[in-house]
Predict the 3D structure of the following.
Amino acid sequence: MDTNRLEAFSDGVIAVIITVLVLEMKVPHGPELQALAPVLPVFLSYMLSFVYVGIYWNNHHHMFQLADTLDGAVLWTNLHLLFWLSLLPFTTGWMGENHFERWPTVLYGANLLACAIAFTILQTSIIRHDGRQSPLAKAVASDLKGKISPAIYVAGIVCAWFLPAWTGMAFFVLAALIWFVPDRRMDRAIRARATRP
């Protein structure tokens, strides 16, 4: 089967995740600017999670631009990724409402780690289906960002547990910054595929 239905379904789920994320921000009571102060931690956690969901959407889109067809394993591993992404509004809201305290920040980091692992499983599943010589396999052959990201999340979780939680957040922001830079390997592979006779 082709990738169109899976991409459309995934895009819809990701759109709902972003919508639920923003609904966690409650309108402050009061017309003064200082009424926004209690909402600031919620806004900052929303902003970080919005960036993460955008990164996953972008990379998901690029990955499926390089996939030829799908099988059942790819469908299930895609649902596995969407499951962990769908928990982001909960972990984001808990962390923001509790001003980045230890347990909410640790759980948020664990959620990010689970998303990263699920994405890697999905990528591996597509490569297993399409073969080691597929465009995707060649594009991610030296996937440094994919290899170091879980280590950054683990470092953030450990720091959030043993040190002030904001130190863990610094690692989560670092991982987002690393992925915020577009992946040139994917762009090159997609262009090469488009110009292939």
Notes: The two ends are 22 Å apart (CA to CA). The mean pLDDT is 90. Residues 102-130 form the longest helix (29 residues). Residues 4-23+38-194 form one domain.
